[in-house]
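Complex 224.
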Amino acid sequence: MLISRTTPLRVAVLASGRGSNLQSIIDAIEAGQVQAKIVAVISNKKDAVALERARKHGIKDLFVDPKPFTGRTDSREAYDRSLLEVLQQHNVELVLLAGYMKIVTAVLVNAYANRMMNIHPSLLPSFPGLDVQKKAIDWGCKLAGCTVHFVTEGVDEGPIIIQAAVPILEDDTPDTLAARILVQEHKIYPRAVQLFAKGRLRVDGRRVFIDDAKPDGEAIISPT
Ligand code: GAR
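Predicted structure with glycinamide ribonucleotide bound:
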């Protein structure tokens, strides 16, 4: 069902690193391609470039230090409870993981079921986890790519929203492949956010349907 909102979707981005995906979403919002407002960028790393990017665009940046929670048996959950408090304080409707290198627990997953997305640089369910561009090359795959999916408790396992395929070339290194995949990441993440903002995503079990999708599909980008 299409929804027409009177106020922009309130989004928070969790990021641990350079934040190029965050930047692609900021740019798409500023260009009027995505009807959303980033109300906070939150990091578990004090020096994350993502926080600098937020500040540059007048977006609230927050470092939530994991240190006080280390050593506890429930350190991950306790950390996520403090994140959840921040998200709720800011009335966040959609959470985006963008290079967020911390496993999220049921505390956040349940509070934001089907309202939290992640971007991952492989064609899931192939190659969840880390160093996935190298793994795809070493496996001899001819296609790699990236995936935006809803977040569930299993790492990189949630329902798939959009994927883009990227060919693996004979002389690719993990770095050259990662760079070409990143170009596609920057296209599909804003697109997924806009679909959500427009109320066009419907989750049915493992499958995500796009309401009123164009006949050629809006959930896949193929190599050209
Ligand atoms: C991106 O390639 C993203 O897909 C990946 O980390 C990079 C972050 O880049 N995420 C994961 O591997 C999560 N499993 P960015 O900080 O420039 O957006």
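The chain is about 30% helix and 25% strand.
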